[in-house]
Specification:
- There is one protein chain.
- The chain is globular.
- The protein has one domain.
- The chain is about 20% helix and about 15% strand.
- The chain has about 90 residues and is of the alpha+beta class.
């Protein structure tokens, strides 16, 4: 099973992509671009983070709109966002 960052969903393909805790130990749940020294780099809501990540569609091989749709479905399932996800009663 492929390991993905539990904040942004990026595939963690090598250990040098892993984040660190305050004491320098490796945290394999998050990438080094989302989490560093025991805290999240971006202090924002899930919705704000989806908007930010949707700008990287091209790098993921999709349009930014497709990326936003993908993130909107994925993020509520990730460790960082599970407790902050609001239920959708549509």
């Amino acid at each position: 099973m492929e390991r993905i960052c539990q904040s942004c969903g990026m595939p963690l393909t090598s250990e040098d992509m892993y984040s660190t805790e305050k004491d320098g130990t490796v945290n394999a749940d998050y990438c080094k671009w989302c989490y560093k020294d025991g805290e999240f780099i971006e202090k924002c809501s899930m919705e704000e983070f989806i908007d930010k990540c949707s700008q990287f569609g091209k790098q993921a091989g999709m349009t930014n709109e497709q990326m936003k749709e993908y993130c909107t479905k994925l993020f509520p399932t990730l460790k960082r966002w599970k407790n902050s996800a609001k239920p959708n009663f549509k």
